[in-house]
Amino acid sequence: MVKIILTISIILLFLNNLLFAQEEYGLGVLLDKELYVNSPTKAPLMRGDYNNLPPSHSLKKFTPTPKSQGADGTCAGWSTAYAGHTILEAINKGLQRDEIDSNAFSPSFVYNQIRFTKNCKGGTSLLDALNVLKDQGGVKFSDFGNDCDREVEESDIKNASEFRIIEYREISSWSEGNQGLFAKKSLSENRPVIAAMDCPPSFSNARSVWTPDSSEYKTWNRGHGIAVIGYDDNKYGGAFELMNSWGIYWGEDGYSWVRYSDYEFFVHMAFELIDYPKPEFKKPDLSGKLLFSETTEGAMKFIFNGEYFETVKPFTSGTLFELFVTNQQPAYVYAFSSDLTYKVDKIFPFNDKMSAYLPYSQNNVAIPSEESFNMLDDVKGITYYCFLYSKNKIAIDEKLLKIKNSEGNMWNRIKSAFGSELIESSKIKYELDEEIKFNAFSDSSTIIPIIIAIKHE
């Protein structure tokens, strides 16, 4: 009896290994840097935001059952739509495993719109795939499947619009270090990470953990899109868990771990997917605080006059100060400065590529950076710093032009530009100590405006 059981086990192991060896795994993400020059980037959070991350975090219970892309080059669709988008949907709706599989999103709806070839063998840009999720949405696997020959029709586009993601952001790339740290932060905030990696041959043979051969630490130009679904500082000396699109016979049931150091080497860039935040009962959905700290005397003191905050005392030209911006609920945050000439300078986001959306439970940003100061210029009178905390994306450049060309003081100009979008001051709760704190519930009005007037002599 023992011999029979042993023989059956050996046969099953042989068949499994044979199947694994015969499987041809497709790749399909293009790694050309020029394809990603317009990637929306994250705002640089303060260093403290990355301290004290939990030692582990997993989104595995929100993943659909891994499926196989076969030999096709469709991994951009699988990693973004089938894995990442489905994970977001499962988190937001609290889906269980059987519900997750039946609500998974189709990779073909995405891939079939962005491919460069008529078949499914060619590679695509991960950025193009993410743009489909943001601009169009997703179609369920049960409705569109994994079908290389199917054309996307108007009815599919209409069905997809219900499932748009709100944003995606590049969280790391070739040009910066600490890729692993940024991925850990995203995952700890329940944001799935989609990575574009350069895939050496040994990755095909990964089991519970992938250990590259010592000869493989070089450039391969074999781009592959993969979902990063968790991390553990104590597993394999610190590792990320990956969900692949090579079926359940790859890795361990379709998943594998990669050590932090190997992630840093082989991952070229990574993006986080962002969905609408779940409303919390009786908790304001817009919340933040501001700190202006003068280099010699500490926090600037303000009073609120019913419309805006103004300094208790005047400051002279050349005064150096730090500016720290915090939001405690996900929001689009914009900031600009001005003076009595009403020339307007956008100070956040720092550039047009940077996303204004700060999606975490708390985000702390130093303007212009933790290593730099702001300085009052030679234009005396009033220096304005204005902040907009919004539930929705703002066409900020258009609004700033309208503010510049309007009449009246800064408060009247902002009211003219935004009208009923502004939450009334009476509905905003303010607290004033060393920091200016504020929160409100949004309804048809979706923007908290905060105006800071620094008396300047």
Quick overview:
This protein is an alpha+beta fold and 457 residues long. It has helices at residues 2-22, 75-93, 97-102, 107-114, 126-135, 141-144, 154-160, 179-188, 260-266, 396-405, 410-418, and strands at residues 56-58, 167-172, 193-198, 209-210, 223-232, 239-243, 255-259, 267-274, 286-294, 298-299, 302-304, 309-311, 320-327, 331-339, 345-348, 357-358, 363-367, 374-375, 381-390, 429-432, 436-440, 447-456. The protein is 24% helix and 26% strand.
Give the tags.
457 residues, alpha+beta, Cathepsin B, Chain A, 2 domains, 8-stranded mixed beta sheet, 7-stranded antiparallel beta sheet, elongated, disordered N terminus
Note down, in words, how this protein is organized.
The protein has 457 residues and is of the alpha+beta class. The chain folds into 2 domains: 23-274, Cathepsin B, Chain A (Alpha-Beta Complex), CATH 3.90.70; 286-456, no CATH class. It is 24% helix and 26% strand. It is built from 11 helices and 22 strands. The protein has helices at residues 2-22, 75-93, 97-102, 107-114, 126-135, 141-144, 154-160, 179-188, 260-266, 396-405, 410-418; strands at 56-58, 167-172, 193-198, 209-210, 223-232, 239-243, 255-259, 267-274, 286-294, 298-299, 302-304, 309-311, 320-327, 331-339, 345-348, 357-358, 363-367, 374-375, 381-390, 429-432, 436-440, 447-456. Strands 1, 2, 3, 4, 5, 6, 7 and 8 form an 8-stranded mixed β-sheet that branches. Strands 9, 10, 13, 17, 18, 20 and 21 form a 7-stranded antiparallel β-sheet that branches. Strand 5 (223-232) and strand 6 (239-243) form a beta hairpin. The longest helix has 21 residues, at 2-22. The chain is elongated.
